[in-house]
Design brief:
single chain, 251 residues, alpha/beta, two-stranded antiparallel ribbon, 33% helix, 13% strand
């Protein structure tokens, strides 16, 4: 595949969120002011689908993420030392691959930094700002390696800032491979997770009342989609602006 030439510039790879368009999306807002003489911004081509979102015949989230990780690895090989940037579902992709690279599972592959907005698998200990007793809706995936990591998550965002034991995490586990086009894959995934003891509907410690309350943070309060307009706690800049500044300081 013919990729744009970096010509000595730092390459920033954008992994957009579920349902977002190419070009003008949340991450584009974070990188639009980068100096083009120092940075080359490219965008990962992936479906960014979660079952019937944004199209009725879309891939499941799990299948979409898996395919995207393969495509992202190819991009990184083309641009050694790239910066990975992801939002929402794209943060799942970039975060998963960064964790794999940091763990040494892709020899000869290196990245300069990883910046994640609303990572569905954010580990509770990894967060810019004051620590909170929360993690991503998909569980906590720790990222460590010879690169910088920036995790940004808005308080109350159920995708990346969910309290432990909240029922939304159980629903996310069930829905990971759900789609209208491949229900057999969904059933196989549920069977596998059941055999692994990962399905815990009957566990009385799960907060199902809280699941409804926290779902409103997504559907009513727009806690997941305000990163470009909401200021970080106690700061004068938004999450998107902060991410752009962090990238711009790289050399």
């Amino acid at each position: 595949m013919n990729y744009p030439k970096a010509d000595g510039r730092i390459v920033v790879i954008l992994c957009r969120g579920i349902g977002e368009p190419y070009g003008k999306n949340t991450l584009w807002l974070a990188t639009r002011n980068l100096d083009p003489k120092r940075f080359l911004v490219v965008e990962l081509e992936w479906s960014a689908q979660f079952g019937a979102v944004p199209v009725w015949n879309g891939q499941s989230f799990g299948a979409s993420v898996h395919s995207a990780e393969t495509a992202l690895l190819e991009l990184i090989r083309a641009y050694p030392g790239a910066v990975l940037v992801g939002y929402s579902g794209g943060a799942q992709v970039a975060g998963n691959l960064a964790a794999a690279i940091g763990a040494g599972r892709h020899r000869g592959v290196w990245i300069r930094a990883v910046g994640l907005l609303s990572d569905p698998s954010r580990h509770t200990s990894q967060l810019i700002g004051q620590a909170r007793k929360t993690q991503g809706i998909m569980g906590g995936r720790y990222i460590a390696g010879n690169f910088q990591l920036w995790q940004l998550s808005a308080p109350g965002d159920p995708i990346s800032d969910l309290p432990f034991g909240n029922g939304l995490a159980e629903l996310a586990t069930v829905a990971e491979f759900w789609s209208l086009v491949d229900p057999d894959a969904w059933i196989r995934d549920l069977t596998r997770k059941a055999l692994m003891g990962r399905l815990k509907w009957w566990d009385h410690s799960i907060d199902w009342v809280g699941a409804y309350q926290w779902s409103l943070g997504y559907t009513r309060d727009k806690r997941h989609t305000s990163y470009h307009i909401e200021r970080m706690p106690g700061q004068s800049y938004t999450y998107v602006e902060r991410l752009g500044t962090l990238i711009g300081q790289l050399w």
